[in-house]
Structure formats: C-alpha cells, structure tokens
Amino acid sequence: MNRSTVLNVAMAALLIAPATAVAQQNNTTSSSDNTGYGTTGAEFLLLGANARGMALGGGYIAMATEIGGLNANPGALALIKRPGVQGSQLQYVGDTKLNFGGLAIPFGGGSSAIGFSIGSFGFSDQKIYDAQNPDGTGAFYSVQETFVSGTISKNFSDRFSVGITAKGVMDKLGDVSGSAFAVDFGTHFHSQLGGRAVRFAFALTNLGTNLHYSGQALNQKIARKAFPDTLPGDSDVPSGSVPVEYSTSPFSLPTLFRVAVAYDVVAVRDARLTLMGEFNQMRTNKGAYGGGAEFAADHVAGTGFGVALRGSYSSNPSLAYSDKDVVSGSYTKPDDEKKAGLAWGGGISFAAKSGFSVGFDYAWKKVGLLGNVNFYTVSLGW
Q1: Which of 156, 150, 232, 228 is nearest to 187 (CA)?
Q2: Average pLDDT over residues 74-100
Q3: Of 17-26, 134-143, 290-299, where does the model show the most confidence?
C-alpha cells in the first residue's frame, strides 16, 4: 500500500468518525448515561487561548503551527518558524474575561521549540447575598482561575512532531482555593496529498491531579445540639458553638481528547483554502464533532500584508434538546440554541523583510442562550 493510499484511508476514517459516533449514540438501547456532567473544576481550561482557535473550532489543533499551539496542541508548536509572543482576551458571558499570554522560541536549527504561557479567568466585586440580606450583605467576593505552563515540542522527522506541556492550575473562589498539576500531550503529522498540504493531529489535554479546596470560608461554627442528661458525678456539658472545618470533595480537571484533519483544497502561490474536521470527547460531556474552513493569503498585491477569513461549526450532543416535549408532545428549539457552536473570524498581518511581523485576529462565537462572545488576539514575531 503506497503512501497516497494510506493518507486517503486515514483521512476518510477521521472524516467519518463523527458520523459513526452519532450513529452509535442514536442506536444505543441502554437507558443509562454515565457521562460525568458537572464533576470537574477549572472549566476555564476549555475556553482556548486565541481568536484563531475559537474561529476554527476543534479543527484548530491541526492548524496550530504558531504560538496558539502552546494551548491547543503542543505537538504542532515544533513547526513555528520564528520566535514570537501573543496576547489575547476573550470577553465571555456575564462580564467575565479570559486573558492569555504566550512566548515561543524555536531552537535546534528549527527542529524543536520551547514555550511558556499564562492564562487567567474570572470576575471581581460581586455582592454576597443570604436569606436575611436579599439586597446584599455589604461584602463582596471574586473568582480568579489561573494556569501557568511550559511546553517543549520536537520534530522527529520532516512529517511528524510531538510535544508535551506541563502546567500548574490555581483556582480561587472567594475565600476558598485549590490547586492541581496537569499535562497536555499532542502530535502532528504533516505531508502532501495530491500535491497539497494535509495535516493530522490528536491532543490529550488537562490530564492531571484533582483539585482539592481549602480556605477560611470552610471554617465555621455549629451550635451544640441538646445533649442527654449527664451521669451522676460528670460535669455539665458546656453550651455554645463548636468550631468545625468542612471537608470538600475533590474535583477532576476537564480532560479533553481531540483528533482532527485539515486539507488544503486550494493551494496557489501565497494563498490557500483549508477545510478541516474534528472529533472530541470530554470527561464531562458526550462525544462532539465539528468542521471549519480558513482562507489565508500572504503578500497581498506584492506587499507584506496578509489577510485571513475563518469559520466553523461545533456540535455538542449533550447540549441538544429532546425532539418532543413530555407535556405538549412537541418542542421547537429556540433560535439561539440552533446557532450555538457557530463561530467566525478573521485576521490581518504584516511581515517585514527583516523578519519582524505583527498580526491582529478577531473571532465571534454563539454560545446559545448565554449570548455571543468575542475574542481578540495580537501577535508579534521577529
């Protein structure tokens, strides 16, 4: 079997994997559902790190051959050509924000790359309410979730690269905090099919220890219950309250497995159109899938300017409604839910002959009834 045949078979398998997964879910006769909904912490790790990644959906892991590979697929980072930095901000729902910063440097004659990144998510100055104070107690709380990571990636041949990321995760929820350690692992295969670039990738992210929470908020006082009468000669049981410390259950990290393929259906000098598809499985959700496209052109009109347009749609079966309502027998899905998972974006860049480059990317995504979110990214290279 020649290389072209192998690539064709591999691509077909990846493209039909989502359909196969959906068919299996629809045909299952078991009524049990072992999906671990709501069992993980630090879900902000699933939000991504830059605008390009959001616009391309899960298929981005096959295209993350720039600084975004630090977060999406460490195996793709080895293909970075020049050192660079990247900063991003995601304006998420409920006035929350995700901030990301990354630095990546190739070494070993371009055969390897190393990088570092940091990300934070949260909000501040939220009122605290209780049953006695429905308008607020006068106190406030904040949420601050952070990760810090280091990545190393290496090309083992002219077609295959592997990378690994180690990261610390810190989660501060009001007066309670927790921490965990995780690793990301990814691979990237890149070759030619019909004279055009084809890329295969898989990534396993957020595989690590559990989050254990502790803090002052867990230290409470409980009123003593009524005690039985004391025996003759025993001293009286003191009244008042007893100091206690609540023990919290550990939360797993949101482990995610992804496999994706991307192919340049059109490739000419300084321009290409790439189609991509992906399948993913989260720890806390059912298997999901998606597809996207990216058009990119460099040296527009003979200048150093470049442009890109991107779009994708990601479907998650765990977010789907039943076709029938138990009361009326019918259900019409809201328009906001029909569009959930739709994302698009674009970017502009400039590369000087000296090697210096600057780029700006934007992405918009529909997240169902929660509304729309916006991602902004600025990149510098030298």
Answers
A1: 156
A2: 96
A3: 290-299
Host H or E run for residue 53: helix 51-56
Tell me, what amino acid is at 268?
A: V
Tell me if 89 sits within 8 A of 376, measured CB to CB: yes
Beta strands in the chain, from DSSP E residues, in sequence order: 84-91, 97-107, 112-127, 140-155, 160-173, 176-193, 196-208, 212-215, 219-223, 241-245, 256-268, 271-282, 288-297, 305-315, 342-351, 357-366, 372-381
| Token pair for 32 | 């049990």
What is the pLDDT, as a whole number, of residue 285? 84
Cβ within 8 Å of residue 99, ≥6 positions away = 87, 88, 89, 90, 119, 120, 121
Confidence (pTM):
0.83
Sequence-distant (6+) residues with CB within 8 A of 176 are 213, 214, 215, 216, 217, 218, 248
Q: Which CATH class is domain 42-381?
A: mainly beta
User: 147-150: which pairs have CB atoms within 8 A and are 24 or more residues apart?
Assistant: 147/42, 147/45, 147/117, 147/118, 147/119, 148/116, 148/117, 148/118, 149/70, 149/71, 149/116, 149/117, 149/118, 149/184, 150/114, 150/115, 150/116
Q: Would you say 296 and 306 are in contact if contact means Cβ atoms under 8 Å apart?
A: yes
Task: Write out the two tokens for 13.
Answer: 């398998």
Give the residue extent of every domain in the chain.
42-381
Give pLDDT tens digits for 269-323: 999 999 999 999 998 888 899 999 999 999 999 999 999 999 999 987 765 554 5
Whole-angstrom distance, CA of residue 174 vs CA of residue 139: 11
What's the confidence (pLDDT) of residue 125?
A: 87
Q: What is the DSSP string of 313-327?
A: EEE-GGGPPPSS-TT
Give the integer Cα–Cα distance in Å for 242 and 323: 53
The structure tokens listed for 26 are 């629809």
pLDDT (tens digit, 9 = 90+) per residue, 184-218? 999 999 999 999 999 999 999 999 999 999 988 88
Q: CA Rg, the chain, in Å?
A: 25
Where does the pLDDT of residue 225 fall: very low under 50, low under 70, confident under 90, or very high at 90 and above?
low
Strongest mean pLDDT among 3-12, 66-75, 132-141: 66-75
